[in-house]
Sequence to fold (370 residues):
Amino acid sequence: MENKDSILEKVIAANKETAKLNFDPRQISQELLKSLNDREREVVSKRYSLSGDKKSTLEGIGEKYNITRERVRQIENIAVKKIKAVAEKLEAINELDHLITDFLDKYLGILGEKTLIKMILEEKETDENYHITKFLINKLLDNKYVTHKETDDFLPILRSKEQDFESYLDAIAKISQILEKKNQPIHRSELWKNYEDENDINFKNDKINEEILLNYLEPSKKIMENPLGEIGLVDWKSITPKRMSDKIYLVMKKFNKPMHFREITEEINKMGFDKKVAHPATIHNELILDDKYILVGRGMYALKKWGYESGKVSEVVEKILRESGPLTKQELLEKVLTKKLVKKTTVNLAITNNPKIKKNKDGKYGFEES
Fold:
């Protein structure tokens, strides 16, 4: 039979989930905006993207109404003050406050603003809902938490008032040191082990765990994760590749098999490394010019380090026989197929049509120099 504490925990968890499911940013926004006149409503909506549109500047709004930037700012401040007065009476805002507190408590009082909003919205996430939730947190609940604005090193971060920010900075500094020491990316599944193993660094926070550590990284601009789940420093080409050749390499590393240049192009565009669109002709040229890659079939390329060979199938057959000595047809076939991506019939023809390849009395094929 369950004890009272266990039952209470389940009830609390169920209430939290209900609050999250019932959270409707658009409905809350509409209720808050009712307190404003038409111009105030439009200024606030445009300044904070509350209707899903792109955020407008003070200048842009001022030009529309033929008023100064300062006047737009005054209208914005008046509107936010009115909204705050209404928000104090809304239970939905109180429930959002509790949701934020719960998430912060779970992650030791610190979360990236973007991460927190995504946790709150989950499947409800749209551009409009995202910006509304951001507005509710930054403008209506700003006295409940500490907001760290965006800097050169971090995206916006939300912190509980009682949480020491230094412990967060210590964790980020430790990961940076680990990465610099290894000088190569670490897969997210291995990061925690590396973090624990680094015993020569002194930390202030011993309550951190793997999930918290990975969430700590989200706001960092210096440490990032590539599409392969590898974590590294942002200026490493293996993390944020700029050249097409580096993007090709990450795609092929991910799939770990020979790929057609059109397939590689498609995957680069799916991964969305940046806003640059990859084109098949460009990718084909890169594959031809970079000696990291090797043609192994019609339009098919592989990483040279995988052991594939360039040249004709007949040349590869000859090279294998020179290095290995006489082989059965099956042995020869298997070796060729590790070097070239071709059909078995193509290999058979290369063996049969080469007068220098002879079958000995043991039924093995060998190469005879002329």
